[in-house]
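Hey team,

Filing this mostly as a record. A colleague (T.K.) asked me to run one chain through the structure pipeline before their review meeting, and I want the input and output archived in the tracker in case anyone asks later how it was produced. No errors, nothing strange. Just documentation.

Input sequence:
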Amino acid sequence: MFNRFKEKLAGFKEALSTKVMEKVSLAEEKLISKKDNNALPEAKGLPAASVEPAKASASTNNKAAKAAQKSAPLKSPAANGPAAADAAAKPKSRFSFFEKAKSLVFEQEVILDEKDLDEPMWALEMALLESDVALPVAEEIVKEVKAELVGAKKKIGADTGQLAEDALRKALVTLLSKNYLDFDEYVKNAQKPVKILFVGVNGTGKTTSIAKVAKYLMDHNYSVVLAAGDTFRAGAIEQLEVHGTNLGLKVVKHKTGGDPAAVIFDAIEYAKAHNKDIILGDTAGRLHTNINLMDQMRKIVRVTKPDLLIFVDEAIAGNDAVERARLFNESVPIGGTILTKTDADAKGGSAISIAYITGKPVLFLGVGQTYPDLVKFEPNWLVDRLMGEAEA
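Output structure:
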């Protein structure tokens, strides 16, 4: 899951690491240069300090004293005292001083400014776009990451890859949390029976997702009724009946070609009469370009007044799924999204983008073929897998 996304992030991490190392090298050079400049006057001053006393003693002492004074520099540095010994030892310690300077730099911090982040941010934006993240979403993530890194003090010795991941993780969690809706809390607090309709294009796993959500709700002790509102596709009613039989649920149905709004209305009346908690209504798959079917969808919404309209599409469709969700939302405002086949999605772009573009939350992710293979959407759950911090 999301393997391609993880691979694409490598370029961003590498670009940021390179920029940090450049700052480290520059800091090292400045520190060493400053140390050398401070040491230079001291080195020049040593001979002068020894010459002045020699001149002063020459004016008062005899020739023998002068001879003794001239012969004094020929003695070993140790004989002239600790200061001379230290001066003689300095050239030998130049390499060790460099190592100390380097160590000192790595114990300090470096501040990344905006121009330092031009290349890393470009690499990040390309990684996001190549992972099917919509352009407005990629730009928003880059802006958040940049705001996190610019001006912040960062330990030079710290793992730069982790620095990059932490900034990106924070940006992703922030983005995915903006339109978050806790499905469990919503159902718990909603007036019963809760009317939930499922819409989307053909062949994206809409009917199977209805069965998965039904199983999820049953596991949370809710009573469920299924409405076979897809009267258009051959075999759609029979497919939902199979799921109903497997789960032990009532399926309200009419004949193929019947009015889907009437089917769902009857399911609502049945739920009220039998004290059922939730109605899950299927509808025919349709493209947003099919005017007649979109008009029919608006009629269903007008007649049944659903509490929640859920758009279903495939995670592997990438930007196509995001665009379809946007157009559906413009026609019949959706309340949330289910992304199917997330376990087969190598990029993760649609999961990141769809909530931001539509302004509506992702509710569930389909991660397999069986009824339990439905994961309630949580921002941290998704980000953990996008970043490779948890198993798919």
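Quick notes for T.K.: Confidence is low (pLDDT under 50) at residues 48-79, 82-107. The longest strand covers residues 194-200.
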